[in-house]
Amino acid sequence: MISAMSHTPKSNTSWAVRLNRWALIWSRHYLKTLLIPLAIFIVLPFLAPTLMKIGATGPAEAIYAIYRPLCHTFAFRSWFLFGEQTIYPREKAGLGTALTYEAILPTIMAELKRLPPADSPIPPDQWYAREFLGDPKLGYKVAICQRDVAIYLGLFVGGLIYAIPRVRRQLRPVPIWLYLWLGLAPIGIDGFSQLLSGRLWELRESTPTFRVVTGLLFGLMNAWLAFPYLEEVARETRREIEAKFAKRAKRLGQKA
After folding, report:
1. How far apart are CA 72 and CA 132, in angstroms?
2. Where are the annotated coiled coils located (predicted)?
């Protein structure tokens, strides 16, 4: 019993040292630990249609399934690869494309060969738009919508810019008023005016340009807001842990 009790403080100290070392490593490389997973997260939705194109439907459908809870993935608000068009917007968007979503909807219904469930919370045309992954003629759908692609890309680009040492030393968090005006207001107006249309006013359908611009602004503003605060946390963590290690080294040196 005495031996076990005497071993406990040393074991606890060992774990504390390890945790501090891991925290120190994170504080020095936190940008990489965030940007690398984010890059993978952005690439995978484009890998899904690529895999569909080459016939690897199993891995592709797994990627679609992973991202499905994160985005509506409506066909009329998503990018398509390897097909006749990169977009199939609703007629209401007024883009003048050769094929609109309404034009391809009969094809989608025929290919899916199933009906929306009776308890579906969304209208049938949206259900078909969500379920349709693509085909060899129309192309294959990117696993997240146009706006989400822009949001994550803006966040990633903002992180890359912040990774520049000179920028990281000088840049402060974005002023809240600017974040509200450039980050939240455009995406909020575009998104909610589309969401509430048909109920409170005439039906409105946004365009890929608006979705990309508002998404990029939102992503960039979030990067500008978040990364400087993370940098402050990382610097403070480094200072505290390096001070602890310095004291520990001095104490061990005195004992020696």
Report:
1. 12
2. none
CA distances from 226 to 66, 143, 172, 233 (A): 26, 26, 10, 11
Mean pLDDT by runs of 10 across the 256 residues of the chain is 48 72 82 96 98 97 97 95 96 90 95 89 92 97 98 98 93 96 95 72 84 97 96 84 70 63
Nearest by Cα to 79 from 14, 153, 27, 21: 153
- Which H or E run contains 79? strand 78-81
Convert 153-168 to b/e letters by CB count within 10 Å (16 or more is b): bbbbebbeebeeeeee
- Helical ranges in 68-117 per DSSP H: 101-112
Q: Tens of pLDDT along 28-40?
A: 888 999 999 999 9
Could you report the per-residue pLDDT of 108-138, keeping only the tens digit for each? 999 998 888 888 888 899 999 999 999 999 9
Q: Among residues 41, 57, 40, which one has the least CA distance to residue 49? A: 57
Return the number of other C-beta atoms located less than 10 Å from residue 254's C-beta. Answer: 7
Rounded distance between C-alpha atoms, residue 256 and residue 245, angstroms: 16
Q: Which residues pair with 185 in a beta bridge?
A: none
Question: What is the sign of the dihedral through the CA atoms of 81, 85, 91 and 97?
Answer: positive
Provide the b/e sequence for 47-77 (b: ≥16 CB within 10 Å): bbbbbbbeeeeeebeebbeebeeebebbbbb
